Amino acid sequence: MATKEVWEGECRGGPMDGQSGESRYPKGFLLVDKGSARAWIYDWDSSTRQFLVRDPMGDPLDEEGRRKAANAHTYDVRVLP
Amino acid sequence: MTRRAQQWEDCYVSAVFAGIIGDANHTAGYHLSIEDNPSTNYSVVLPDDKAPPGDWPRNQASGTDMSMSTADMKTDYARMLVVYHDRSDPRRKYVRGYNGWDGVGSAKRLDFAKNTIGTSSSDHKWHGHREDFRRYVNDPEATRAIVSIHKGETKEQFMGGSSMTMLCTFGDVDPAGDPEEGRVAALQARLWFLGYDTGNPPTDGNYGPKTRDALKAACASVGWTCTGEAFWAGEWAALGKAEILHWAAAAGHTHPDDDGGTGAGPHKHDTAAVGVSVTVPAQEVTITIPSFTATGTAAAGETSGPEPV
Known about the structure:
Strand order of the largest sheet of chain B: 1-2-6-3-4-5
Strand content of chain B: 15-25%
Order of helices and strands of chain A: EEEEEEHE
Helix content of chain A: under 10%
Low-confidence stretches of chain A: none
Structural class of chain B: alpha+beta
Shape of chain B: globular
Structural class of chain A: mainly beta
Number of helices of chain B: 8
Number of strands of chain B: 11
Oligomer: heterodimer
Helix content of chain B: 25-40%
Distance between the termini of chain A: 21 Å
Mean pLDDT of chain B: 67
Largest sheet of chain A: 7 strands, mixed
Strand content of chain A: 35-45%
Distance between the termini of chain B: 24 Å
Shape of chain A: globular
Largest sheet of chain B: 6 strands, antiparallel
Radius of gyration of chain B: 21 Å
Number of strands of chain A: 7
């Protein structure tokens, strides 16, 4: 099923530094790595049209938090490509 | 997150659940319930998606999104594609559509109802989107079938490995505790894993009405009538016999003899009380269930149980 709007831009910092990012939601995306049990928040910057990592070191993965994010419609939930 | 979504996520190292509930981007379709959709939307007009009064729920979505790495996405798409192309695959009937990517060109959409392959939006290069027919949204057999696809099982593996096999490969699970309670807890765990309601908490070791009803429903799913009365006897032989009976009936095994044996070693059991005679060859099953993992080889009459982790 096609989505109507997607936010696209370069990622700055963190595991996706320099890579192209995409989110279906306006605030950015949560990057999840189950293997290392860590997550990074990438905030969408509308002025530069980039995703900026909030903390390059990331945070311990909050299982409940990431599931809530999946249905919260503000941040997308993604994994490393 | 639903159990079906959790099991899809568990199929891939990278996979992370990315949503079910509709939002500004999903204003119609399978991410919304029947009652929240326009009456003419494609997701509520097919027979298996409509909900006449009294039928499957009108208030649940049946679309799931799963973010994956490129490698896992390509694998998942390939597994779906195999089933899409095989009209004889019984798992096919549960899936309405799937959006994903094979790594080449645009993201793709597999429409199982129309039997077409089209393109999809670019975000489906990194997240799979699966639509299940609404009538099966709470169906445990649908869950087993759909998860089987994501696991990469062949059609033959799915058809040959009855869900009942999993019920018949456990024994004493808690040597330090009450053996019968342990066995019942193990049974409950498997029923719960298969999607049946065994109460709250799901593995309390008590063989109550919900557990008995769940077992009867699981047996019925493979076309066998189960009274569940064997468990009330509280005897290992009866429990073992019921387990083996369930598995064998599902696998189509029959045997006229009964040596009345119990415990370890191969046995032939006559379940005259319910009209089925069975012989159970060795069966290796590995499952992972909440709080413990079970791995073992169950020879006829012998069962191996889960070990707490």
